[in-house]
Amino acid sequence: MLLTLGYNPQKQRYVGTWVGSMMTHLWVYDGELDKDGKTLTLNSEGPDCSAEGKMTAFRDVIELKSRDERTLTSYMLTGDGTWLRVMTARYRRVA
Predict the structure, then answer these.
(1) CA–CA separation, 49 vs 56, rounded Å?
(2) What are the 10-residue block averages of pLDDT along the chain, 95 residues in total?
(3) What is each CA distance from 29 to 10, 17, 23, 66, 69, in whole angstroms?
(4) How far is the C-alpha of 60 from the C-alpha of 41, rounded, in Å?
(5) Confidence at residue 12, expressed as pLDDT on a 0 to 100 scale
(6) Edge-to-edge, what's the strand order for the sheet holding 13-19?
(7) 76: helix, coil or strand?
(8) What's the confidence (pLDDT) of residue 52?
(9) In terms of Cα–Cα distance, which of 33, 27, 65, 66 is closest to 47?
């Protein structure tokens, strides 16, 4: 897997991509940092796991918990308009 992130000063938005060897889709991100400076919300579009051949909105939220910990939580927009959490990863620095 490879995640790229950067800041586009013209758009004043965060941009990036994600690709993994387990799928053929290239995820393209557009997002913003919350006012607290610790939560980055990235929006994208990807394959809907509940409907073959259909695309849906996704939201990845990166939260900086401390200098040594962050989480990544992924949500998928369902057919009824609710956000379904599909994955959470916790990253910790080990001394």
Answers:
(1) 9
(2) 95 95 92 96 93 92 96 95 96 90
(3) 16, 6, 17, 24, 22
(4) 6
(5) 94
(6) 2-8, 13-19, 27-33, 39-47, 55-66, 69-77, 83-92
(7) strand
(8) 85
(9) 27
